[in-house]
Amino acid sequence: VISATILEHWFNVFQGRSNWAEVNYFYPHVRSLANTDGYFIVGVIYSPFRQLGFDPFYSAELANMVVKSVGFIGMYWMCRRVFSMPFHWALLAALLFTLNNGMTVHSSRSQLATVAFTPFMVILLWRAALAIKQNDFAKARLSGGLAGLLFGAWCLTCFYAAWFFLYFFIVFGIIAVIISGKSGLALIKEQFTSHAGSYLLVLMVSLLALAPFLYAFLPKSQETGVREYSESLAFTVPPENVLQLGHENIFVGKAYNEVLLSIKPDYLPTHEYYNTGFGILLFVIFVIAAVRITRQDRKNNRLIFSLMLATAITWLSTLNVDGHSLWYAVFHSIPGAKALRVVSAYYVFLALPVIVISVHYLMMRLLPTLLALVLSALLIVEELNAPTLGLVRQAEIKRIALTKMPPSACKAFYTSGWSDQTALSGPAEIYAHNVSAMLIAQQLDIPTVNGIASFMAPDWDFANPNKQDYDARVRSYASKNNVQGLCRLDLNDKTWDVVDPATIRIVPVDLSVFEKSAWPGGVASFTGLSGAEPWGRWSSGKVVQFTFTEPLPKKFALHLTGHAFADNGGKNFEVIL
After folding, report:
1. Which pLDDT belongs to residue 514?
2. Which H helix or E strand runs over 134?
3. Partners of 486 in the beta sheet?
4. How far apart are CA 210 and CA 182, in angstroms?
5. String of b and e for 408-429 (b: at least 16 CB within 10 Å)?
6. What residues have CB less than 8 Å from 383, skipping those under 6 apart?
7. What pLDDT sits at residue 301?
8. What is residue 504's predicted lDDT score, i.e. its pLDDT?
9. Number of CB atoms found within 10 A of residue 503's CB
10. Which residues pair with 99 in a beta bridge?
């Protein structure tokens, strides 16, 4: 639903109804597109299907099919042109790339499927490099400029996938320069000098293409902050997960997990991206190929050797051995790494070079036809899975169907919780009402204060919508952010209420700290605290503020019980009356 929401945003943009950087949620915070991936290229593909009359969910799925097809065609073309593979081996590589377990098992993360653009980036850069070598200035500028435009659009589509390519390309480039030796360095210097104008033009085009991404995402990263290394470390890959395809994998995943549990009974996957590993046969062939390339092809085929080393080095950087990972160096040295959390998702990208190297090795072995067919079939079979499909299209369409339009006074809105909120999928107390609000906001072209994203708005406090204090939390947010013309949409009966800021209801708040007080007043509202949990509450903002129904007594003792964690440990705090 979140994916469909952002894609619907682009449909509205192309119709002239919306500002491209504002996605109508987390209102009134600006550049809200940057709270998560931007989906730009997928939105370009999605919009014609919407124009043809398909609903948002059909259109999103059709757009995904186009993206997958682009990846298949691109991989085949790249293997033919760049790596000189014959038809049947290039076809095998394209099939393996398209069916890759790590990509398809996370098909709900449609932005990750944009690794499909990688082969076209490789082809464009390859054509530019050949043109420079042949002193074809026009072709070099055209191919390089198109690569820059594609990378800028890719960043605005899925920063993860684009950054994965950038990281790999940086490591590959360093390796290629090192192994080229002094003669290679001299040639690079000569070509750079003679093609300085072309390089400068391509750089300018690339920066221009990146401008929308930087405009939206750079200020947002300063507002919401970047990741802590501990967050990224938690998503690095333990050795046992290198070959982990997950229980969804039909032929290999379950058997692998049974063997793994017999060896390590306390093994437990720690997050949803635990299953992005490589197929066992594919990885074995890759390792054998890496040994062979190191021994025999190091000088004869520098492209394959550089590709293999970059693959091995970047793969090793993702491993977590006893709580230690080389990702620490990546996190602190590669630009943009601090925006990433799910390191294991890199395997979705890394599947491409692993497949290329493995298929290249099989091609060079000149295998008998029958053996080649058997190995190809086994490689394909071990990628097949049955991903969890959680969306019931008709149910979601019903959820966003409105029987009444909002009153003309509504300039922004928030939603109630669903009556069956806790029965819905995901962390329902956080997601269900927020995602419905997001898609309804696109449908109405009216912003909502609700929302959910990778990076939350700094004062977001809209979980647990069926708790007593939810309306008070929303209205406190609206008051703080000067939201005018706020309305409430009841998701269950689709009725609208205009919220009058002058008559904010006093909502009882269950705060045990006041239970034993002789003071007759109570809490009218508060900000900066989470909803009540079994153990208590936690502060969700830099400031916790209470508004009381009665003036506080002139003299009283205040007792606070709590503890700090993470960066707040050992710091002072102030109580201001």
Report:
1. 52
2. none
3. 412
4. 34
5. eebebbbbbbbeebeebeeebb
6. 96, 99, 100, 101, 104, 279
7. 86
8. 42
9. 6
10. none
SS3 355: helix
CA of 418: how far to CAs of 34, 54, 357, 492, 494, in Å? 27, 27, 51, 6, 11
Closest CA to 239 of 342, 311, 161, 323: 323
Pair 305, 293: CB distance under 8 Å: yes
370 by DSSP, 3-state: which?
helix
Q: For 52, which DSSP code?
A: T
Task: Report the pLDDT value the prediction gives residue 544, as an integer from 0 to 100.
Answer: 83
Per-residue confidence (pLDDT) for residue 568, from 0 to 100 = 67
| Structure tokens belonging to residue 158 | 């899925």
The span from the CA of 549 to the CA of 373, in Å, is 78
pLDDT of res. 530: 66
Give the list of residues 6+ apart from residue 129 with CB closer than 8 angstroms, or none.
none
Residue 181's region, left for phi above 0, alpha for psi from -120 to 50, else beta, is left
Looking at the DSSP bridge assignments, the partners of residue 454 are none
Nearest to 221 by CA among 38, 43, 42, 31: 31
Looking at residue 7, its pLDDT comes to 97
Residue with tokens 């040994």: 291
Task: Report which residue type is found at 519.
Answer: W
Distance CA 104, CA 106 (A): 5
Please give the pLDDT value at position 503.
45
Structure tokens at 238: 């333990």
Phi then psi for residue 145, to 5 deg, are -65, -40
Strand 412-415 to strand 545-548: parallel, antiparallel, or no bridges (unpaired)? Answer: unpaired
Residues lower than pLDDT 70 in the chain? 425, 500-519, 530-537, 540-541, 565-570
Q: Kindly report the backbone phi and psi dihedral angles of residue 223, in degrees, each rounded to the nearest multiple of 5, phi listed first.
A: -75, -45
Q: How far is CA 437 from the centre of its chain?
A: 21
Q: What is the pLDDT of residue 389?
A: 73
pTM of the model: 0.84
**Which two structure tokens, joined as six digits, stand for 3?**
């994916």
For residue 125, give the nearest of 66, 206, 37, 196 by alpha carbon. 206
Distances (CA, A) of 539 to 442, 496, 545: 31, 31, 10
Q: Are strands 486-490 and 412-415 parallel, antiparallel or unpaired?
A: parallel
